[in-house]
Design brief:
The complex is a heterodimer of chains A (362) and B (304).
Chain A lengths: L1 E6 L5 H25 L4 H10 L5 H26 L7 H12 L1 H5 L8 H27 L3 H21 L34 H18 L1 H11 L1 H6 L4 H28 L10 H11 L4 H24 L5 H22 E7 L3 E4 L3
Antiparallel strand pairs in A: 1-2, 2-3
Helix pairs in contact in A: 1-2, 1-14, 2-13, 3-8, 3-9, 3-11, 3-12, 3-13, 4-6, 4-7, 4-11, 4-12, 6-7, 6-11, 8-9, 8-13, 12-13, 12-14, 13-14
Chain B lengths: L1 H27 L7 H19 L2 H25 L4 H20 L24 H6 L3 H19 L1 H11 L1 H6 L4 H27 L11 H11 L4 H24 L5 H5 L1 H14 L2 H7 L13
Helix pairs in contact in B: 1-6, 1-9, 1-10, 1-11, 2-3, 2-4, 2-9, 2-10, 3-4, 3-9, 6-7, 6-11, 10-11, 10-13, 11-13
The chains are: A mainly alpha (362), B mainly alpha (304).
Chain lengths: 362, 304
Amino acid sequence: MRIELEKRARVSTLFSIISPLLALLLTLVFGAVMFWFLGKPPLGSLYVYFIEPLLEVWSLHELAVKAAPLILIAVGLSICYRSNNWNIGAEGQFTIGAITGSILPVLYPEWHSWAILPLMMIMGMIGGAAYAAIPALLKTRFNTNEILTSLMLVYIAGLFLDWLVRGPWRDPKGYNFPVTKSFQVEAVLPEILDSGRAHWAFIFALVAAVALWFMMRFMLKGFQVSVLGQSERAGRFAGFSARRMVWFSMLLSGALAGLAGISEVSGSIGHLQPAISPGYGFTAIIVAFLGRLNPLGIIASGLVLALTYLGGEAAQVALEISDKAARVFQGMLLFFVLSCDTLIHYRIRLVLAGNQTKEVKA
Amino acid sequence: MFEAILLTVITASTPLVIAALGELVTERSGVLNLGVEGMMIMGAVCAFATTQMTGSPYIGLLAGIAGGAAFSLLFGFLTLTLVANQVATGLALTILGLGLSGQLGEMFVGKPGIKLQPIVIPLLSDIPFFGRVLFAQDLTFYLSVALVIGINWFLFKSRTGLKMRAIGDNHGSAHALGINVIRTRYLAVMFGGACAGLAGAQLSLVYTPQWVENMSAGRGWIALALVVFASWRPWRVLAGGYLFGAVTIGQLHAQAFGIGVPSQLLSALPYAATIVVLIIISHNRRTTLINTPASLGKPFVPDR
């Protein structure tokens, strides 16, 4: 028995919609199997993981808190991946954005003005974009592979943050903990509603997603992204510059990752510390693909992945399953998304021995 | 003193060399597997767990190889059979590997490991200076050298190696000539996985004989950079691997001596060195194009 692929004459709209849902379903099935192996009730565990967090107001707020950075980063990455620029260092751009955005509250804790917050956000975006500019420059100038350089920069950014909060930026009154001074009230991103912790980062995420959706759908720039991503040669004939697209997509995704970084630090943590992200920059890659690299789809997939973080925390308490299970879920999800996407472009046939062809999926 | 430093450099370089050699073979067949980090960490956890259960690090080593190869099959199925995007699937392999290994290894955190003991070769190890350094090592070091020689012979002297390079350079033509592209690529991907698994096993059995989550710490990615650095040639992988090993050990010693530079910035050195090396090697667009397997990362669907 073997599997044969046959190219579809045109992209299947039906499977474009079904494929992410199918991937989710497969992940749930395999997740249940995993829980069963761990000796936990499969259905009960799935309930704790994926339903219970949706039933209470405070946990819906937590969902928005976790979804915000994922969506912000992922919409930027979707532009990168669509244009065939593989920025996988968003985690590093997130970290540097958090650092540059924190310069004002850390160095000027006595400055009480409404202007500090917008300045922090802008500086965070500049920091993230500048950090993403390094792989962009290396790619355009030296032809260096952006996958490897952007990833190496993640480790460097993490070590740099570690040095800052243990060294020059450490709060002298912090009982020797590696943290900066807590930000002044004016430097904390306000909550959206009175009922919980969700803060303005979620609004930023929605605005960014809608804006980029509009760009991809209705603006020339969006068209350039798609054309250059599908065929650089075709793009050149149309007079589009692949080099400029490297800069555009990397700076854009870097800026959004930087904004996510400073929003997270300002809105959720309130100071800088060695660990500011549970891998948002990497999980956002999954978010981008689950959302089919479509900014509006990414809003939905960001909420789904945020749910795996929340479910992971809930399961740790209720079922004594380690929080690593969440990462397994996320990894499985990406695998199933990628395999289900095959159905969009190809028909799949199972060929049984003896040349009997059996159509399995039309 | 110098001998001791050299010994630690070898231990730090061996996993990089082995993992990069495996990836070199995979890429020579035209497949870009970015999941080295994930396969490596799976090899590390399989090797450590098996060693704990059987008491024999050699069985552990085998388990590491098998674990890496089995894990790479997942990548093979997606990219070769289902023609999924290789870059994205490689990333998925790394993310899944880091998660799965954390879950599997949870019960082994903090347990004392069993170290793979060196095999001292009689007579040869009595040669002054070089004898102790080169002939009193553990099995993984000997394997790494054997792999360099073996792969070099396979790629450039054997018929199968020639066919594999042909696939990597033009899978369409190779297919037209009747070479089984998909099968060869499956084998190449699994070889890469086995090597990454072996490299991971070296980490949890020799380099730091214990299980720590994320203990591969980016070495899989450095191995990927090494392949580019080596312009897809086995001997250069060996040279490059030792260069990186030397940088890693050098910065550790610098930290121990306390030369006044913050330790975090020294720890960043191997990663920064990787970037610098990539710049030097890639800046000449033409030589890069000549060396890179032409079909690298491109999807292949056989026409029937």
